[in-house]
Amino acid sequence: MWLEKIDIQHFRNYSEASVTFSPHLNIFLGRNAQGKTNILEAIYFLALTRSHRTRSDKELIQFQQSTLKLSGIVHRRSGKLPLEISLSNKGRITKVNHLKQAKLSDYIGHMTVVLFAPEDLQLVKGSPSLRRKFIDIDLGQIKPVYLSDLSNYNHVLKQRNAYLKSTDKVDIDFLSVLDEQLADFGARVIEHRLDFIKQLEVEADKHHSLLSNQIERLNISYESNISLQNNKSIRQAFLITLRQNHKRDIFKKNTGVGPHRDDLTFYINDMNASFGSQGQQRSLILSLKMAEIALIRNVTGEFPILLLDDVMSELDNHRQLKLLESIDKEVQTFMTTTSLDHLTNLPPDLKAFVVEAGSISRKQVNI
Fold first, then answer.
1. Where is the chain membrane-spanning (predicted)?
2. Phi, psi (degrees; rounded to nearest 5) at 311
């Protein structure tokens, strides 16, 4: 899979831009705050209908404008596929092959992306919400039913929390009805995640072993506040835990257990990776990104598009080399950087662009 071109209207600091890409390596050069990351964000948004940098859609629309529009042509094994997304105060409109999509889950997955950005280096030591977001984005791209189950779960969760906040005298029978619905969708969400983590662990361990010269093994543990170890089904265990927490939830006026509070723990040679060295943690994140590419390829039959947002400067020469070596020639890659000086082993057919104040121009590079 690769993105042939993208057309941008009123996105961040871009009024209008149209860029045609190489199916292999594309590099965006320029000083900081010129719009390099905004290009990668536009590609990410075209694929996933959301930004990796902000939850506020208003921040994406260019200043003094009311709408934005992104369109692109993605090449898949089945042929060319036009994609389009527009955003206004009325919401999102997504189109696949010029046909409007009723649900976001019908749109997401037509173009898959893996993003590696400096903030990903916080995945090990950062908040649990970062790790849940990591699961949701990857799993949502390869398994559309996961997005549907997660959306339904969040809808019931919102209802349950709103009810707990709205009354001082909770009707236990009504709360139990909400519990049943929450357990239905929540169990499905957890099952999807467990299967995904199992597959991801296998791929990530392979890459981490290579990065560490076969010295270190990587394990990933899914941490749930619902007991998953006994003979009960996940749904049954979730329902029991919800009922056991009724007093707590009524007092706190929110839902204290469920996949919205679950987490991941990474282990290097059975040691919690949050206590590892900075070098070990960076190798772990690099291994995860390589594993994401392999897993998406295994599940969908297509390589995802790789977005590297100013991460080469965060990696030492050894990890830079391993990253570049690991990228399959079939993986279209987009990279932002301030300079090419620190990069080696670049392919001769790359396309380079200079980004300055929201303007993009081609740059000739002698390799």
1. none
2. -100, -20
